[in-house]
Amino acid sequence: MMRNRAIDASNYQFCSGERILIDANVWLFLQPPAAQPPPAYARRYSATLRNLLSANAQPVIEVLVLSEYINRYLRLEYDVSWAHSYPRFKQFRNSQDFATVATSAIADVRQIMTLAVAQDTTFSQADLPGILDETQKGSFDFNDGVLVETCRDQGWKFLTDDADMQLGGIEVLTTNRRLLAACP
After folding, report:
1. pLDDT tens for residues 17-71?
2. Which in 37, 85, 87, 156 has the greatest CB count within 10 A?
3. Sign of dihedral through CA atoms 132, 168, 63, 34?
4. Minimal CA–CA distance to 159: which of 71, 36, 46, 40?
């Protein structure tokens, strides 16, 4: 499988109308749960989003990213703030404490939805045998494979901080130095 081409998002010149699929890890930096404030380097993604919007490029959100964002947000809150009170996540999920956390998560999702256009994953056009082969080999996870295929099919770039996002043959925007070094 071809390697991705990583481009430094801090210096990237966005074009008007250009569609950029933003990964869940970047949204978690931009709209973090209270229990997990973003690291200092996350400011680079805030500046990148500002540049993207100023150029009238279009941030894109789709169901896999949204699912990963919500699930990770809730798990981070549970692990940091609630695991001591609820030994199992499902107990937490059935509690009033969860309802409070979920209200915050959904408010953040609604904010994301004001910034990004919702698009469908093109799963039916994806190279499913290739994705499954690479998933089985451990080259990347299944969702990442579907996201890569969607970007390729739609002609989008992918904004991510995931250093493992090295395969697929697409253009990846990042400020992650390891990914930039691995995919020049």
Report:
1. 999 999 999 999 999 999 888 889 899 999 999 999 999 999 999 999 999 999 9
2. 156
3. positive
4. 46
